[in-house]
Amino acid sequence: MSRQTPQPATNKRTGPQAGLLTSLGQNHARAFFFSAGKLTRHPLSSLLTALVIGITLALPAALHLLVQNMDALSFSWERTVQASVFLSDDLSEEQGRQMATRIAEHPEVEETEYISREKALAEFRELSGFGAALDLLEENPLPAVIAVQPVATASALQIEDLLKELSLTKGVDSARIDQSWLERLNGILIIVQHIVQALALLLALAVIVTVGNTIRLDIQNRKAEIEVMKLLGATNAFVRRPFLYTGVWYGLCGGIVAWLLLQIVLGVLSGPVRHLAGLYQSDFSLSGLNFEATVLLFLAGIALGWTGSWWTVTRHLQAIEPK
Amino acid sequence: MATGQNIVEFHGVSKRYPGSGDALDRLDFKLGHGEMAFLTGHSGAGKSTFLKLIALIERPTRGNIIVNGVNLSQLKRHHIPAYRLGLGIIFQHYNLLYDRSVFDNVALPLVIRGLRHQDIARRVRAALDTVNLLKKERAEPITLSGGEQQRVAIARAIVCKPFLLLADEPTGNLDPDLSLDIMNLFRRLNEVGVSTLIASHNVALIRRMNRRIIHIEEGKVMSDAIPGPVPA
Ligand SMILES: Nc1ncnc2c1ncn2[C@@H]1O[C@H](COP(=O)(O)OP(=O)(O)O)[C@@H](O)[C@H]1O
Ligand SMILES: [Mg+2]
Q1: pTM for this prediction
Q2: pLDDT the model gives residue A210
Q3: Chain B contacts of A16, Cβ < 8 Å?
Q4: Low-confidence residues of chain A, pLDDT below 50?
């Protein structure tokens, strides 16, 4: 009679209990490693799932890198922007040089450089690779140019005014700064960025569904085990825990796979990109994921894996009861 | 309601499964603290249903069941896990888990309770010692004989020191010698104070146990008595 307890719930206190936190920690650690063990029992199917998740995660990450690199590229071009003042052929080299010195006195101008027709031709021959084609021409088609480097603080409007003034100067054919394509590129980049965001959202859903589906099959395969555990007094939370950790493992492994895929792609591309940049006399090189973005990628994998398994487990676990 | 002496009380309990007759029909029953009783009867008599009602696998259609002072009809769904922790259940279709060792199987109820590693190891070994399987703790269940597997299931049921042990046909597919071993094991557990309720259709075997036998027929109690000594 003395053994009787008024509420079965108090049976929980049997045996020496560790501090709540220690035992909670042990419970989670147990579920964490147990679920890892489960995954390594079927390495091939686990790996395939991680690969699918990895590819899904790698796609938006790769597009993000593309935007990041194109942005950096256009930024570096913006900094080195130059105005070109094309001189009329009537102007002598002497007059051209004088004009260059005069333009350099403008407050918005950092420096100028006079490029004679011969020098322009030589540079073009060297950089464009069209040397042989130029040889076919009887005379030099290129005008003399004054390259104008605006001061870094000059606003677009000031540069615009300067160009207008220069183009009206006697002996100048035209003055222009070819920036409109930069603006177009920026516009495109903003659109691409939005596409990347929308795509990332869709692909995040795809990861959730992938993990959810894998866990759903896992739950079905382990139905008998779940029933046994519930009959032994396991709560829904207890049964759910290893499945949630399985989802976390899938997400983390998927994140690692995505990171590896990106490293491979970057490795393959970096050589050709550097070569191409070299052709344009640029020291541009591909940038990869920085530390923060890498952590974010892994965290996104974990969060999506957890969400996918949580979503499935809450829908399917309650229905499994001992019969 | 005086429930102090009894670990289980059935008051006018009926159970009807959808689309069939009454599996149990207005049943009254009491099991005292520390008592051991056998449920017997033909197949389909309602023995399993009886035990499932106590384990809250099924709910009665009518009547009240009081276990350890708790009226089960008032127990909310989310209290069921805590309630089951106090039971030791050995049911046929709730086998061992074949993806883990004997030790891990027996440890499961303790893991569910969130005990510490050291306590788990100590209590698992004590339970395995009771069923005489200490040497097999590292074995995979599939490599054990039927009798050994049943003993592992018993160890799993008693490892949490339940206030009530429920067994449904625990000797179902065992040969007579092993069956006797298992029943003797239950009797030894009962001798140290575990209240026990066992469903078995093997009348010859349970008559040798010298314990109360409740004969059920079509959901009703036909007889309820401790048999006299078995003629040799
Ligand atoms: N889940 C169920 N659904 C419908 N009928 C059932 C179910 N379980 C048992 N029964 C019926 O209830 C009666 C009692 O079954 P059971 O308790 O399993 O008897 P026993 O264990 O004595 O063989 C039988 O007629 C059986 O067909
Ligand atoms: Mg039965």
Answers
A1: 0.73
A2: 92
A3: 116, 119
A4: 1-18
Q: Which tens digits make up the pLDDT trace of B174-209?
A: 889 889 999 999 999 999 999 999 999 999 999 999
ipTM of the complex: 0.91
Dist. CA B159–CA B86, nearest whole Å: 11
CATH of A82-177 given 3.30.559.10, 3.40.50.720, 3.40.1010.20, 3.30.70.3040: 3.30.70.3040
Burial A77-95 (b: 16+ CB within 10 A, else e): beeeeebbbbbeeebeeee
Q: Pick from A16, A30, A234: which is nearest to B119 by CB?
A: A16
Q: Please report which helix (H) or strand (E) contains residue B53, including its range.
A: helix B47-54
pLDDT of amino acid A5 = 38
Question: CA angle A44-A46-A48, nearest 5°?
Answer: 70
Listed in order, the ranges of chain A carrying CATH 3.30.70.3040 are 82-177
The strand pair at B87-90 and B164-168 is best described as parallel
Residue B176 in tokens? 């007579």
State the Cα–Cα distance between residues B209 and B225, nearest whole angstrom: 13
- Six-digit token pair at A185? 């590129």
Residue ranges lining ligand 1, Cβ < 6 Å: B 17, 20, 23, 41, 43-49
